[in-house]
Amino acid sequence: MNRSSSTKERILGAAEVLFAQRGFDGASLRQLTTAAGVNLAAVNYHFGSKEKLVEQVFRRRLDALNAQRLAALAKVREAGNGRLEDALDAFIRPALELSHEDSGSLFMRVLARAFAEHDDSLRQFLSENYGHVMRQFTAEFARLLPHLTKEELYWRIDLVTGALTHAMSGFGMIQRKQDVSEGAHREQTIQHLIRFAVAGLTHP
Amino acid sequence: MNRSSSTKERILGAAEVLFAQRGFDGASLRQLTTAAGVNLAAVNYHFGSKEKLVEQVFRRRLDALNAQRLAALAKVREAGNGRLEDALDAFIRPALELSHEDSGSLFMRVLARAFAEHDDSLRQFLSENYGHVMRQFTAEFARLLPHLTKEELYWRIDLVTGALTHAMSGFGMIQRKQDVSEGAHREQTIQHLIRFAVAGLTHP
DNA sequence: GTCTATAAGATGATAGAC
DNA sequence: GTCTATCATCTTATAGAC
Protein backbone atom coordinates (compact mmCIF):
# COMPACT_ATOMS: atom_id res chain seq x y z
CA MET A 1 0.00 0.00 0.00
CA ASN A 2 1.32 3.34 -1.10
CA ARG A 3 1.36 5.80 1.78
CA SER A 4 1.80 8.82 -0.48
CA SER A 5 -1.83 9.03 -1.60
CA SER A 6 -2.98 8.75 1.98
CA THR A 7 -0.62 11.53 2.99
CA LYS A 8 -1.86 13.69 0.12
CA GLU A 9 -5.49 13.09 1.08
CA ARG A 10 -4.83 13.85 4.73
CA ILE A 11 -3.14 17.10 3.74
CA LEU A 12 -6.02 18.06 1.44
CA GLY A 13 -8.56 17.38 4.17
CA ALA A 14 -6.69 19.33 6.81
CA ALA A 15 -6.05 22.15 4.34
CA GLU A 16 -9.76 22.51 3.61
CA VAL A 17 -10.58 22.78 7.29
CA LEU A 18 -7.82 25.23 8.09
CA PHE A 19 -8.23 27.39 4.98
CA ALA A 20 -11.92 27.74 5.88
CA GLN A 21 -11.16 28.67 9.47
CA ARG A 22 -8.13 30.89 9.01
CA GLY A 23 -7.84 31.77 5.35
CA PHE A 24 -5.11 30.92 2.88
CA ASP A 25 -2.54 33.18 4.45
CA GLY A 26 -3.80 32.61 7.97
CA ALA A 27 -3.34 28.84 7.90
CA SER A 28 0.36 28.11 8.18
CA LEU A 29 2.06 25.01 6.86
CA ARG A 30 2.97 24.19 10.42
CA GLN A 31 -0.64 24.14 11.62
CA LEU A 32 -1.65 22.32 8.47
CA THR A 33 0.89 19.52 8.60
CA THR A 34 0.41 19.11 12.34
CA ALA A 35 -3.37 18.75 11.89
CA ALA A 36 -2.84 16.25 9.07
CA GLY A 37 -0.35 14.30 11.16
CA VAL A 38 2.37 14.58 8.52
CA ASN A 39 5.76 16.18 8.43
CA LEU A 40 6.24 19.88 7.80
CA ALA A 41 8.16 19.19 4.62
CA ALA A 42 5.43 16.97 3.15
CA VAL A 43 3.45 19.81 1.56
CA ASN A 44 6.34 21.03 -0.51
CA TYR A 45 7.25 17.47 -1.39
CA HIS A 46 3.77 16.42 -2.55
CA PHE A 47 2.35 19.63 -3.99
CA GLY A 48 5.38 21.75 -4.82
CA SER A 49 4.23 24.84 -2.93
CA LYS A 50 1.47 26.16 -0.73
CA GLU A 51 -0.19 27.81 -3.74
CA LYS A 52 -0.44 24.54 -5.69
CA LEU A 53 -2.01 22.95 -2.64
CA VAL A 54 -4.69 25.65 -2.64
CA GLU A 55 -5.43 24.86 -6.28
CA GLN A 56 -5.88 21.18 -5.52
CA VAL A 57 -8.24 21.92 -2.65
CA PHE A 58 -10.47 23.67 -5.18
CA ARG A 59 -10.18 21.04 -7.86
CA ARG A 60 -11.20 18.23 -5.55
CA ARG A 61 -14.67 19.74 -4.98
CA LEU A 62 -15.33 21.83 -8.08
CA ASP A 63 -14.54 19.18 -10.67
CA ALA A 64 -17.24 16.98 -9.16
CA LEU A 65 -19.73 19.82 -8.69
CA ASN A 66 -19.56 21.08 -12.24
CA ALA A 67 -19.67 17.63 -13.76
CA GLN A 68 -22.90 17.04 -11.84
CA ARG A 69 -24.34 20.34 -13.02
CA LEU A 70 -23.58 19.64 -16.66
CA ALA A 71 -24.91 16.09 -16.44
CA ALA A 72 -28.16 17.37 -14.94
CA LEU A 73 -28.42 20.07 -17.60
CA ALA A 74 -27.87 17.52 -20.36
CA LYS A 75 -30.73 15.44 -18.97
CA VAL A 76 -33.03 18.47 -18.94
CA ARG A 77 -32.14 19.24 -22.54
CA GLU A 78 -32.61 15.73 -23.88
CA ALA A 79 -35.98 15.51 -22.12
CA GLY A 80 -37.14 17.95 -24.78
CA ASN A 81 -39.42 20.82 -23.81
CA GLY A 82 -37.70 21.47 -20.47
CA ARG A 83 -39.24 23.74 -17.92
CA LEU A 84 -37.39 26.65 -16.37
CA GLU A 85 -37.74 24.97 -12.98
CA ASP A 86 -35.78 21.97 -14.22
CA ALA A 87 -32.91 24.00 -15.63
CA LEU A 88 -32.74 25.93 -12.36
CA ASP A 89 -32.77 22.66 -10.46
CA ALA A 90 -29.79 21.45 -12.48
CA PHE A 91 -27.99 24.67 -11.66
CA ILE A 92 -28.91 24.94 -7.99
CA ARG A 93 -29.24 21.39 -6.62
CA PRO A 94 -25.66 20.13 -7.06
CA ALA A 95 -24.35 23.37 -5.57
CA LEU A 96 -26.61 23.24 -2.54
CA GLU A 97 -26.01 19.54 -2.05
CA LEU A 98 -22.30 20.19 -1.93
CA SER A 99 -22.77 23.05 0.50
CA HIS A 100 -24.80 20.84 2.84
CA GLU A 101 -22.33 17.96 2.88
CA ASP A 102 -20.34 17.35 6.02
CA SER A 103 -17.18 18.99 4.77
CA GLY A 104 -19.04 20.87 2.06
CA SER A 105 -19.97 23.77 4.29
CA LEU A 106 -16.33 24.11 5.13
CA PHE A 107 -15.50 24.21 1.46
CA MET A 108 -18.11 26.92 0.92
CA ARG A 109 -16.21 29.07 3.35
CA VAL A 110 -13.02 28.37 1.44
CA LEU A 111 -14.79 29.49 -1.72
CA ALA A 112 -16.15 32.62 -0.04
CA ARG A 113 -12.64 33.47 1.02
CA ALA A 114 -11.37 33.03 -2.51
CA PHE A 115 -13.95 35.50 -3.81
CA ALA A 116 -13.27 37.97 -1.02
CA GLU A 117 -9.56 37.69 -1.70
CA HIS A 118 -10.30 39.06 -5.15
CA ASP A 119 -7.06 37.37 -6.13
CA ASP A 120 -6.74 37.55 -9.89
CA SER A 121 -4.74 34.36 -10.32
CA LEU A 122 -7.35 32.40 -8.39
CA ARG A 123 -10.23 34.03 -10.23
CA GLN A 124 -8.53 33.26 -13.51
CA PHE A 125 -8.10 29.65 -12.44
CA LEU A 126 -11.81 29.38 -11.65
CA SER A 127 -12.88 31.09 -14.87
CA GLU A 128 -10.55 28.99 -17.03
CA ASN A 129 -11.62 25.70 -15.51
CA TYR A 130 -15.31 26.24 -14.88
CA GLY A 131 -16.40 29.22 -16.97
CA HIS A 132 -17.89 27.00 -19.67
CA VAL A 133 -20.48 25.71 -17.19
CA MET A 134 -21.91 29.19 -16.66
CA ARG A 135 -21.98 29.76 -20.42
CA GLN A 136 -23.95 26.57 -21.05
CA PHE A 137 -26.52 27.45 -18.42
CA THR A 138 -26.84 31.00 -19.73
CA ALA A 139 -27.54 29.60 -23.20
CA GLU A 140 -30.24 27.31 -21.81
CA PHE A 141 -31.89 30.13 -19.84
CA ALA A 142 -31.86 32.26 -23.00
CA ARG A 143 -33.68 29.45 -24.82
CA LEU A 144 -36.31 29.16 -22.08
CA LEU A 145 -36.81 32.93 -21.73
CA PRO A 146 -36.83 34.12 -25.36
CA HIS A 147 -38.79 37.29 -24.58
CA LEU A 148 -35.92 38.76 -22.53
CA THR A 149 -33.16 40.81 -24.11
CA LYS A 150 -29.63 39.51 -23.53
CA GLU A 151 -28.99 42.50 -21.32
CA GLU A 152 -32.06 41.85 -19.19
CA LEU A 153 -31.31 38.13 -18.98
CA TYR A 154 -27.75 38.71 -17.76
CA TRP A 155 -28.97 41.02 -15.01
CA ARG A 156 -31.49 38.50 -13.78
CA ILE A 157 -29.13 35.52 -13.89
CA ASP A 158 -26.64 37.60 -11.95
CA LEU A 159 -29.16 38.27 -9.21
CA VAL A 160 -30.18 34.59 -9.08
CA THR A 161 -26.52 33.70 -8.73
CA GLY A 162 -26.29 36.15 -5.84
CA ALA A 163 -29.22 34.54 -4.05
CA LEU A 164 -27.76 31.07 -4.63
CA THR A 165 -24.32 32.11 -3.43
CA HIS A 166 -25.84 33.59 -0.31
CA ALA A 167 -27.88 30.46 0.38
CA MET A 168 -24.81 28.28 -0.10
CA SER A 169 -22.64 30.41 2.12
CA GLY A 170 -24.79 29.91 5.19
CA PHE A 171 -24.40 33.58 6.08
CA GLY A 172 -28.15 34.14 6.02
CA MET A 173 -30.41 34.28 9.02
CA ILE A 174 -32.27 31.09 8.11
CA GLN A 175 -31.08 28.27 10.32
CA ARG A 176 -32.22 24.67 10.21
CA LYS A 177 -34.61 23.93 13.06
CA GLN A 178 -34.09 20.93 15.28
CA ASP A 179 -37.27 19.20 14.16
CA VAL A 180 -36.28 19.39 10.49
CA SER A 181 -33.84 16.83 9.13
CA GLU A 182 -30.74 17.89 7.26
CA GLY A 183 -32.09 16.48 4.00
CA ALA A 184 -35.50 18.08 4.43
CA HIS A 185 -33.92 21.45 5.14
CA ARG A 186 -31.78 21.22 2.02
CA GLU A 187 -34.82 20.32 -0.07
CA GLN A 188 -36.68 23.26 1.45
CA THR A 189 -33.84 25.60 0.56
CA ILE A 190 -33.76 24.29 -3.00
CA GLN A 191 -37.51 24.72 -3.44
CA HIS A 192 -37.49 28.25 -1.98
CA LEU A 193 -34.60 29.20 -4.22
CA ILE A 194 -36.19 27.77 -7.35
CA ARG A 195 -39.53 29.49 -6.76
CA PHE A 196 -37.76 32.75 -5.94
CA ALA A 197 -35.59 32.46 -9.05
CA VAL A 198 -38.52 31.61 -11.32
CA ALA A 199 -40.37 34.68 -10.07
CA GLY A 200 -37.30 36.87 -10.52
CA LEU A 201 -36.51 35.53 -13.99
CA THR A 202 -40.01 35.56 -15.47
CA HIS A 203 -41.59 38.75 -14.11
CA PRO A 204 -42.73 41.10 -16.89
CA MET B 1 -4.08 72.83 13.64
CA ASN B 2 -3.97 69.46 15.26
CA ARG B 3 -2.07 66.92 13.21
CA SER B 4 -3.44 63.91 15.11
CA SER B 5 -6.83 63.80 13.38
CA SER B 6 -5.13 64.06 10.03
CA THR B 7 -2.81 61.19 10.91
CA LYS B 8 -5.76 59.11 12.09
CA GLU B 9 -7.65 59.81 8.87
CA ARG B 10 -4.67 58.96 6.72
CA ILE B 11 -4.28 55.67 8.57
CA LEU B 12 -7.98 54.85 8.18
CA GLY B 13 -7.85 55.58 4.45
CA ALA B 14 -4.75 53.52 3.85
CA ALA B 15 -6.13 50.70 6.02
CA GLU B 16 -9.30 50.49 3.94
CA VAL B 17 -7.31 50.19 0.73
CA LEU B 18 -4.88 47.63 2.06
CA PHE B 19 -7.43 45.53 3.97
CA ALA B 20 -9.44 45.32 0.74
CA GLN B 21 -6.43 44.31 -1.31
CA ARG B 22 -4.66 42.00 1.11
CA GLY B 23 -7.03 41.16 3.92
CA PHE B 24 -6.79 41.93 7.61
CA ASP B 25 -3.94 39.54 8.25
CA GLY B 26 -2.36 40.08 4.87
CA ALA B 27 -1.92 43.82 5.29
CA SER B 28 0.93 44.41 7.69
CA LEU B 29 1.31 47.46 9.88
CA ARG B 30 4.49 48.22 8.00
CA GLN B 31 2.77 48.37 4.58
CA LEU B 32 -0.08 50.27 6.13
CA THR B 33 1.93 52.97 7.88
CA THR B 34 4.23 53.36 4.88
CA ALA B 35 1.23 53.87 2.57
CA ALA B 36 -0.27 56.39 4.98
CA GLY B 37 3.04 58.21 5.27
CA VAL B 38 3.12 57.87 9.04
CA ASN B 39 5.40 56.14 11.47
CA LEU B 40 5.12 52.43 12.21
CA ALA B 41 4.28 53.12 15.84
CA ALA B 42 1.40 55.48 14.99
CA VAL B 43 -1.23 52.73 14.68
CA ASN B 44 -0.66 51.46 18.18
CA TYR B 45 -0.47 55.02 19.49
CA HIS B 46 -3.73 56.21 17.92
CA PHE B 47 -5.86 53.06 17.89
CA GLY B 48 -4.35 50.83 20.55
CA SER B 49 -3.99 47.77 18.36
CA LYS B 50 -4.49 46.51 14.83
CA GLU B 51 -7.83 44.98 15.82
CA LYS B 52 -9.22 48.29 17.10
CA LEU B 53 -8.16 49.87 13.83
CA VAL B 54 -10.19 47.28 11.90
CA GLU B 55 -13.24 48.16 13.99
CA GLN B 56 -12.87 51.87 13.19
CA VAL B 57 -12.58 51.14 9.46
CA PHE B 58 -16.01 49.51 9.67
CA ARG B 59 -17.60 52.19 11.83
CA ARG B 60 -16.61 55.00 9.52
CA ARG B 61 -18.75 53.60 6.67
CA LEU B 62 -21.47 51.60 8.37
CA ASP B 63 -22.62 54.26 10.82
CA ALA B 64 -23.42 56.53 7.88
CA LEU B 65 -24.98 53.77 5.75
CA ASN B 66 -27.39 52.54 8.37
CA ALA B 67 -28.41 56.03 9.45
CA GLN B 68 -29.36 56.69 5.82
CA ARG B 69 -31.33 53.47 5.60
CA LEU B 70 -33.31 54.18 8.74
CA ALA B 71 -33.98 57.78 7.71
CA ALA B 72 -35.29 56.57 4.33
CA LEU B 73 -37.45 53.92 6.02
CA ALA B 74 -38.89 56.49 8.41
CA LYS B 75 -39.91 58.65 5.45
CA VAL B 76 -41.62 55.70 3.78
CA ARG B 77 -43.53 54.96 6.97
CA GLU B 78 -44.68 58.47 7.64
CA ALA B 79 -45.85 58.82 4.04
CA GLY B 80 -48.63 56.44 5.08
CA ASN B 81 -49.69 53.62 2.76
CA GLY B 82 -46.16 52.87 1.53
CA ARG B 83 -45.54 50.61 -1.39
CA LEU B 84 -43.21 47.61 -1.24
CA GLU B 85 -41.02 49.28 -3.87
CA ASP B 86 -40.41 52.24 -1.58
CA ALA B 87 -39.42 50.12 1.41
CA LEU B 88 -37.05 48.14 -0.83
CA ASP B 89 -35.64 51.38 -2.17
CA ALA B 90 -34.88 52.54 1.38
CA PHE B 91 -33.13 49.23 2.02
CA ILE B 92 -31.23 48.96 -1.24
CA ARG B 93 -30.39 52.49 -2.40
CA PRO B 94 -28.09 53.63 0.43
CA ALA B 95 -26.22 50.33 0.25
CA LEU B 96 -25.71 50.49 -3.50
CA GLU B 97 -24.79 54.16 -3.38
CA LEU B 98 -22.09 53.38 -0.86
CA SER B 99 -20.82 50.49 -2.96
CA HIS B 100 -20.56 52.75 -6.01
CA GLU B 101 -18.67 55.54 -4.27
CA ASP B 102 -15.04 56.05 -5.10
CA SER B 103 -13.69 54.29 -2.04
CA GLY B 104 -16.98 52.51 -1.44
CA SER B 105 -16.18 49.61 -3.72
CA LEU B 106 -13.00 49.13 -1.77
CA PHE B 107 -14.97 49.06 1.43
CA MET B 108 -17.30 46.44 -0.07
CA ARG B 109 -14.32 44.20 -0.48
CA VAL B 110 -13.36 44.81 3.11
CA LEU B 111 -16.88 43.82 4.11
CA ALA B 112 -16.78 40.70 1.93
CA ARG B 113 -13.57 39.70 3.64
CA ALA B 114 -15.13 40.16 7.04
CA PHE B 115 -17.96 37.80 6.12
CA ALA B 116 -15.60 35.27 4.59
CA GLU B 117 -13.43 35.42 7.69
CA HIS B 118 -16.43 34.12 9.60
CA ASP B 119 -14.74 35.71 12.59
CA ASP B 120 -17.17 35.57 15.49
CA SER B 121 -15.96 38.70 17.22
CA LEU B 122 -16.38 40.71 14.03
CA ARG B 123 -19.80 39.22 13.30
CA GLN B 124 -20.85 39.99 16.84
CA PHE B 125 -19.65 43.57 16.44
CA LEU B 126 -21.73 43.95 13.27
CA SER B 127 -24.82 42.34 14.78
CA GLU B 128 -24.61 44.38 17.99
CA ASN B 129 -24.17 47.68 16.21
CA TYR B 130 -26.38 47.29 13.17
CA GLY B 131 -28.74 44.36 13.85
CA HIS B 132 -31.62 46.68 14.76
CA VAL B 133 -31.68 48.03 11.20
CA MET B 134 -32.48 44.60 9.77
CA ARG B 135 -35.16 44.08 12.40
CA GLN B 136 -36.89 47.34 11.51
CA PHE B 137 -36.91 46.50 7.82
CA THR B 138 -38.19 42.99 8.47
CA ALA B 139 -41.08 44.47 10.49
CA GLU B 140 -41.95 46.82 7.63
CA PHE B 141 -41.84 44.01 5.03
CA ALA B 142 -44.10 41.94 7.28
CA ARG B 143 -46.59 44.82 7.34
CA LEU B 144 -46.52 45.15 3.55
CA LEU B 145 -46.77 41.40 2.91
CA PRO B 146 -49.34 40.25 5.45
CA HIS B 147 -50.31 37.12 3.49
CA LEU B 148 -46.85 35.56 4.03
CA THR B 149 -46.05 33.44 7.08
CA LYS B 150 -43.09 34.63 9.14
CA GLU B 151 -41.19 31.57 7.97
CA GLU B 152 -41.86 32.28 4.32
CA LEU B 153 -41.06 35.98 4.73
CA TYR B 154 -37.68 35.27 6.35
CA TRP B 155 -36.71 32.96 3.51
CA ARG B 156 -37.55 35.55 0.90
CA ILE B 157 -35.85 38.45 2.68
CA ASP B 158 -32.80 36.26 3.02
CA LEU B 159 -32.69 35.64 -0.72
CA VAL B 160 -33.20 39.34 -1.48
CA THR B 161 -30.32 40.11 0.84
CA GLY B 162 -28.21 37.62 -1.08
CA ALA B 163 -28.99 39.29 -4.39
CA LEU B 164 -28.24 42.72 -2.91
CA THR B 165 -25.00 41.56 -1.36
CA HIS B 166 -23.93 40.09 -4.68
CA ALA B 167 -24.80 43.28 -6.55
CA MET B 168 -22.89 45.36 -4.03
CA SER B 169 -19.85 43.14 -4.10
CA GLY B 170 -19.22 43.66 -7.79
CA PHE B 171 -18.47 39.96 -8.20
CA GLY B 172 -21.16 39.55 -10.82
CA MET B 173 -20.68 39.46 -14.55
CA ILE B 174 -22.53 42.71 -15.15
CA GLN B 175 -20.06 45.49 -15.84
CA ARG B 176 -20.81 49.11 -16.53
CA LYS B 177 -20.51 49.91 -20.23
CA GLN B 178 -18.47 52.85 -21.41
CA ASP B 179 -21.47 54.71 -22.82
CA VAL B 180 -23.35 54.52 -19.51
CA SER B 181 -22.48 57.01 -16.79
CA GLU B 182 -21.62 55.87 -13.29
CA GLY B 183 -24.81 57.37 -11.89
CA ALA B 184 -27.00 55.86 -14.62
CA HIS B 185 -25.49 52.43 -14.07
CA ARG B 186 -26.14 52.62 -10.35
CA GLU B 187 -29.73 53.66 -10.97
CA GLN B 188 -30.10 50.75 -13.41
CA THR B 189 -28.77 48.33 -10.81
CA ILE B 190 -31.16 49.68 -8.18
CA GLN B 191 -34.16 49.37 -10.51
CA HIS B 192 -33.23 45.82 -11.59
CA LEU B 193 -32.77 44.81 -7.97
CA ILE B 194 -36.06 46.34 -6.84
CA ARG B 195 -38.07 44.71 -9.63
CA PHE B 196 -36.34 41.38 -9.01
CA ALA B 197 -36.98 41.66 -5.27
CA VAL B 198 -40.62 42.63 -5.70
CA ALA B 199 -41.16 39.59 -7.93
CA GLY B 200 -39.36 37.31 -5.47
CA LEU B 201 -41.19 38.68 -2.43
CA THR B 202 -44.71 38.77 -3.83
CA HIS B 203 -44.99 35.62 -5.95
CA PRO B 204 -47.85 33.34 -4.79
C1' DG C 1 8.98 9.27 1.52
C1' DT C 2 9.89 11.06 5.96
C1' DC C 3 12.46 13.35 9.22
C1' DT C 4 15.34 17.23 11.85
C1' DA C 5 17.49 21.38 11.69
C1' DT C 6 17.97 25.66 10.06
C1' DA C 7 18.21 29.43 6.79
C1' DA C 8 16.29 33.92 5.67
C1' DG C 9 12.95 36.96 6.45
C1' DA C 10 8.42 39.22 8.03
C1' DT C 11 5.31 40.31 11.82
C1' DG C 12 2.84 42.97 15.94
C1' DA C 13 4.03 45.37 19.73
C1' DT C 14 6.75 48.32 22.78
C1' DA C 15 10.55 50.99 25.21
C1' DG C 16 12.65 55.15 25.34
C1' DA C 17 14.85 59.28 23.06
C1' DC C 18 13.37 63.63 21.19
C1' DG D 1 2.97 63.01 18.71
C1' DT D 2 6.65 61.09 16.31
C1' DC D 3 10.72 58.64 15.79
C1' DT D 4 14.34 54.57 15.86
C1' DA D 5 15.68 50.35 17.47
C1' DT D 6 14.66 46.08 19.00
C1' DC D 7 12.23 41.92 21.13
C1' DA D 8 10.03 37.68 20.72
C1' DT D 9 7.68 35.15 17.65
C1' DC D 10 6.07 33.67 13.59
C1' DT D 11 6.46 32.42 8.56
C1' DT D 12 7.80 29.50 3.98
C1' DA D 13 11.12 26.87 2.07
C1' DT D 14 15.12 23.84 1.74
C1' DA D 15 19.38 20.95 2.72
C1' DG D 16 20.80 16.70 4.02
C1' DA D 17 20.57 12.47 7.17
C1' DC D 18 18.03 8.21 7.36
UniProtKB/TrEMBL annotation, chains A, B:
All residue ranges annotated as the HTH tetR-type domain in the record: 5-65
Pfam families: TetR_C_30, TetR_N
Keywords in alphabetical order: DNA-binding
DNA-binding annotation, residue ranges on this chain: 28-47
Coiled-coil residue spans: none
Protein's name in the database: TetR/AcrR family transcriptional regulator
Organism: Rhodanobacter caeni
